[in-house]
């Protein structure tokens, strides 16, 4: 039996009818159409489905959509502003931190949560913040460089 829930996603309010067992991942992708949220392992291990919920990273494959009601959800689609790409998105491009792109949304959102809390992180802090996100293409060096570059721009 479907139930109506309201989700605040990227500053917009969505009313959707979902089964109680539907995860936030599937509602964002299938009901709202935000395909920047990737479906990887669906076990909370790879980080491809990372979104921000009230400013904290969440594996959306492990959260029921109904649990997200009343919370502020940010996906990769919500980062780009009127001026263009978010500084993290731009840094990933400039530092060639995007390979196949599958892990990129989760990496960027994890990096954003870190930089919101720690504007000038160390390399170790970046690596710890990204440790829940798996990348099979880059070896992480360029990803870490991109996050560190954004942190240094605040100096």
> Helices and strands, in N-to-C order?
EEHEEEHHHH
CA-based gyration radius: 15 Å
- CATH level-1 class of the largest domain: Alpha Beta
* CATH domain fold name of the largest domain: Ubiquitin-like (UB roll)
Structural class: alpha+beta
The number of distinct structural domains comes to 2
Low-confidence stretches: none
Total DSSP E strands: 5
Question: Helix tally?
Answer: 5
Mean pLDDT equals: 95
Strand order of the largest sheet: 2-1-5-3-4
Overall outline = globular
Termini distance?
53 Å
- Percent of residues in beta strands? 15-25%
Spell out the CATH superfamily of the largest domain: Beta-grasp domain
**CATH-level-2 architecture of the largest domain:** Roll
Query: How would a crystallographer describe the biggest sheet?
Result: 5 strands, mixed
Structure description:
This protein folds into two domains: 74 residues, Beta-grasp domain (Ubiquitin-like (UB roll)); 67 residues, [2Fe-2S]-binding domain (DNA polymerase, domain 1). The model has no long low-confidence stretch (mean pLDDT 95). By secondary structure, it is an alpha+beta fold. Strand 3 and strand 4 form a beta hairpin. It has a five-stranded mixed β-sheet, with helices on both faces.
Spell out the blueprint of helices and strands.
Blueprint: E1 3-9, E2 12-18, H1 24-31, E3 50-53, E4 56-59, E5 72-74, H2 87-94, H3 104-117, H4 123-129, H5 141-153
Parallel strand pairs: 1-5
Antiparallel strand pairs: 1-2, 3-4, 3-5
Helix pairs in contact: 2-5, 3-5
